[in-house]
Request: fold
Amino acid sequence: MSGSPADGPVKRIAIFGAGGGGTSAAAHLTTLGFEIRLYSQDESALKPLQDAGGIEYDAPFGQDFAKIHTITSDAKIAMDGAELVMIVSPAHLHEKWIRAAAAHLTGEQTLFVSPGHTLMLIPHVLRDCGIEHPVYCETATLPYLCRRTGPTTCRISRVSDFMVFGAFPGRETERLHRIVSTVYPSVQPFANVLETVFPYGNAIHHPAAFLANTGRVEATGGDFRHYYDGITPSVGRLIDTVDAERLRVAEALGARTMPFVELFWTMGYTTDAARDSGIAYEAFHQSEPDKWIPAPPQMEHRYFLEDVPFGHVIYSELGRLAGVETPTIDHIIHLASTALGRDLRADALTLDRMGLGGVSKERFLDLLENGFGG
Reply:
C-alpha cells in the first residue's frame, strides 16, 4: 500500500472478524447508514448470520435487527469497493487478518485496526506481504463494551465516548483521523501507534486481577463478578503498581498517555469521584458498565492468553528498550506463565517478532514517525 488512502467520504466498510466486536460494529454501523461487508474465515460463525441475513442487537441505541449487506468468507468480495477496511479482533489474530487483507488492499483504501496496540507488528507483516511502505491506523481500545450473545445476536453495553487514535507512520495520523472520525467521531488523535499501545486498558488490569483470583476461578468456575468481586483493595494496589511502571516506560519514550483511572473515566466507564481518588479499586467499584461482568470460567482465557503476551510483554520489552525496569510486570508474566504451565513469552509480541531486534531507541522512534520512507 504505497499510495495514500482516498480522503473522500466513507460509505462502504469491510469488517474482518465476526466475534463480539465485529458483529457489534457491523450492527451499529449498519444503523448509521454504512454499507457493511462482514468477513470471517470461521464458517461456523458466519453461517447462522448468513441464514438470518444479519444481526439482532440489544444496545443503548435500541433493540432491533440489522440487515447486513454482505456476509462472506471471501476477503476479496468483502473488500471490493470498500473505502475502509476495519480489523476487529483480538491482538493474537492480527497477523492472520492482515495477511488475508494484504493481497487485496489498494492504495485508495484505509486500513483501520480496532483495537490495535500491536505496535510495529502490522507494518512488519504488511512488508512481509510485499507492501514496501505500509500505512495504517488504529485505536487503543474497541469502540464497544460488547458480547456476541448467540449465533445471530450481540449485546452492546456501551459505545465508547473516547478512543486514542494513531497511525503508522505518525506523520499520517492527522489525515487518517479525518477519515476515520467520519465513522467514529469519538476517536482522538495522538502522535502514532506507540501512543495507542500504552492506553490498552485490558493489559493494565486483566493480568494482575486474574492472577490474584486464580484460586477463586478454579474453585468456583468463575462464579463471581470479575471486577466488582475480584478487584479488592489489595488487588487494586497491584494494578496501580503495574500502571505506575507503564507510565514510567511511556515517559522515557516520550509517549503521551494518562494514568489508568483517568483513562477509564475519560472513556465513560466510572464516576467523577473514582477519578478524583486515582485508585483502580475505586474506579472498578464505581463502574456501572463493568459491575455485572462475570469472571472467566477457566484460566485458559484471553485475560492471560492475550493480555500478557500482547500487553504486559510489550511493556516489558519497551522498558528494556528505554532502560526502565518493570519488576511488577515481569513478575506477573512469570507467575501467569507458571500458573498456566506454559511460557507466555514464547509467542509474545517481542521486539524481535516485530522486526525490531537490535534496533536503538532513536531508530525505533524515527520509524514510528516516518515509516520506511518512500
